[in-house]
Amino acid sequence: MVNALYSARPETSLGRHFNEPAPTYRSEYQRDRDRIIHSTAFRRLEYKTQVFVNHEGDLYRTRLTHSLEVAQIARSIARTLRLDEDLTEAIALAHDLGHTPFGHAGQDALNGCMKPYGGFEHNLQSLRIVDLLERNYADFNGLNLTYETREGILKHCSLKHAAELGDVGKRFLDKKQPSLEAQLTNVADQVAYNNHDIDDGIRSGLVSIEQMRQVDLFSMQYDKVMWKYPELTGHRCVHETIRRMIGEQVVDLVETSRIRLKEAKPQSIEDVRNHHEQLISFSDDMYTRNQTLKKFLRENLYYHHKVYRMTRKAHQVIEALFSAFMEDIRLLPPEHQNLSRNALLENGETGQARIIADYVAGMTDRYATMEYARLFGIEGNVF
Ligand code: MG
């Protein structure tokens, strides 16, 4: 099936910073997707987590499996709405590249350390990785991705940062929308994490099925599963419920977005960008039910005292590493020492702090834990 007029089309792409010959047997967005898969930051996602620290169990989601789930959900919707699947996949696989070790706890801690130096934000860091920090190509730093993939990676951004970011920052200043592929991947991210966090939450024993039944999105599908399979228990029952929840949300998203596209009649990606609001969205009812689920997960899982204990330790590790490197850059590997010295000459302490933040953010959970143990002479498991 041919992609719709309102999709992002490789031939009308706003292009790459560094001009390159067109790929031979791939589209520009396929090349972006492929470069992301071959990047160093992508491989690190395997050992980074969101809610649970990497060593807590082999069955929990990592950033890598999360990104694959986002790509799966987003691609299937992209195909239905006749959007560009390759661009959608590229954005999904890259969207979490900038995450620190230890999930949101790590991000908060590093942001705290970076407060005097402009802060740290994982979304901006994802862009910084693909624009600058990957150092694998002879002709350029970063991955030299197309504008559309970079636009999708930068989901949100303060106006202050937008003004500093050039091309991809401009839409925030002009109050324009990103491509439909970017809008879609953003919602697919939420569908993926809300649902897999329920699965991981129940698996860990931190939340129970009984608790989950307070949430309408869960209980409606759970009741259907129980009606059809009254004997079903345990993980099969949870999985059957969650797959129906994802299905219900995807159908709502597709149908609502179809209606909105029909009303707005965008004839090109430019029309999509100029539209006064996003065209890919849940119905109002599904949006509200999703907010209820998010609130439940926040109160019962992300702020669970066992998760909080991990959060505290993550803060301790990140803050200790950052301060140690700031105090004595000779603790850094030689390559980062050089980068840090140059940054100090160019931008003073702020420049140096940014190089150290890049280094710390790039660590996996286990590398950060090991580095902490090595630097501070701590025996045994920190977590
Ligand atoms: Mg994500």
Low-confidence stretches: none
Helix % is 55-70%
Q: Kindly estimate the percentage of residues that lie in beta strands according to DSSP.
A: under 5%
Tally of structural domains? 2
**Secondary-structure-derived class:** mainly alpha
Ends distance: 50 Å
Mean pLDDT: 94
General description of the model:
This protein has helices at 28-37, 40-44, 63-80, 85-94, 103-113, 122-133, 147-153, 159-164, 170-174, 180-204, 209-212, 216-228, 234-264, 269-274, 284-302, 305-327, 334-362, 365-375. It is an all-alpha fold. It folds into two domains: 13-306, Hypothetical protein af1432 (Orthogonal Bundle); 307-376, no CATH class. α3 packs across α10 and α5 runs parallel beside α16 (305-327). 43% of the residues are buried. The model has no long low-confidence stretch (mean pLDDT 94). Bound molecules: magnesium ion.
List keywords for this structure.
mainly alpha, Hypothetical protein af1432, binds magnesium ion, 64% helix
Task: Describe the structure in brief.
The protein has 383 residues and is an all-alpha fold.
Furnish the topology, listing elements before pairings.
Elements: H1 28-37, H2 40-44, H3 63-80, H4 85-94, H5 103-113, H6 122-133, H7 147-153, H8 159-164, H9 170-174, H10 180-204, H11 209-212, H12 216-228, H13 234-264, H14 269-274, H15 284-302, H16 305-327, H17 334-362, H18 365-375
Helix pairs in contact: 1-4, 3-4, 3-10, 4-7, 4-10, 5-16, 7-10, 10-13, 10-15, 12-13, 16-17, 16-18
This protein binds magnesium ion.
